[in-house]
Amino acid sequence: MVVLGVVGALVLEAASLAARDRVRDYWERPGVQTLSVLGVVGVAAASLLVEPELLVALGSGLVTYLVVLAVAESAARLGRYQDNS
Length: 85
Prior knowledge:
By secondary structure, the protein is mainly α. It is built from 4 helices and no strands.
């Protein structure tokens, strides 16, 4: 299940990069952000009752997403730092 979560997060990120501007436009809408958070919380709650292994996939996908986000942010900050020197 961990592999499923990791692969799912990486596929989602790759798809998001392909349509970066469109994804950013949608994500900046408060309703989309709220529904996304509620959706993840709802799936996590339901998985506890029905299929606990899904929670492992969700957790590993979330961790993978956060690692990708941290690497991207670090690379962007490093690039800005090097440009200013």
